Amino acid sequence: MSTDVAQPFALDLAHPAATDLATTGGKGSSLARLAAAGLPVPGAFHLTTHAYRAAVAGAPQRAIVEAATHVQPDLPETHEATASRIAAVFAELEIPGEVADAVRAGYSTLRVPTGNRVPGAGEPAVAVRSSATAEDLPGMSFAGQQESYLNIRGEEALLRAVRDCWASLWTARAIGYRARHRIPADEVSLAVVVQRLVPADAAGILFTVDPMTGSRDRVVINAAWGLGEAVVGGQVTPDTFLVARASGGVDATVSTKEIRTVRTDDGTRNEPVPAELRDRPSLTDAQAARLAALGSRIEELYEAPVDVEWAVDDGRPFILQARPVTGAAGRQPNTEVSPR
Hints:
This protein is an alpha+beta fold. 32% of the residues lie in helices and 24% in strands. α4 (76-91) runs antiparallel to α6 (155-167). The radius of gyration is 20 Å and the shape is globular.
């Protein structure tokens, strides 16, 4: 699938080279590690940082770096002005042919075989996720600075989403963050993960350390109906499942879930949860216990507490991403408190 052995533009999900942070970014290298360990990660491919550099090489990169020279860390108006100038660069950016070919080749590996000759049949719906080289690291809290695009279908829509991911490396928020952390503009690059979209019945986040107390004696799972964006974005009050490590017992707090994120023909939308589901638990105890076991496996792999985005489709759990827990909770691996 790669177009250049020395500097591949695309890599298979679990390719050995894909665990390199500089090549696939924080999110991508983590997913490659999870997939190589046999965890249930949806099918995907990486568009590497080499593809980004090839796309912006020459005049676009010079314009980006020049615009970034006007950024002052403590003046948000300079972040906004720089972001506007760089957005104009990406609006005019043409993806080089060899990079576009790598995207198309990677996408073809995710297609579902079909005998249907209707145009678009077999075109998989994918999530297109930015993966920066300074995100998802133990000492940084960069995750979420760039964009993800869900339910993208077809080659041309995928290429647009890839370009939009690259552009999101230069939002005002991301520019300000990097300026405060003294990350030079000319060293910044972005990989992209193109991942088969799980048509989730329920989704959410789990923590292998209690993010509030630092307790390691239970796994904390937040869950709601539909895709996980409503949970991640704080648009719904999720159910909470506490799974005791020692006994496997599950203590559930069920919330009234008003909103869920669902797929549409051309993206996603939030819609009201059907009345009969609003006060029902979004996971069974058995599903929560299985997710907690997966979280513990990932924690062993990372040798550190982790937070994990997951989805359940037709009872099957999938791991969408994982990263070490940052902040106080992640620095208290030996803190123990009594279970509720």
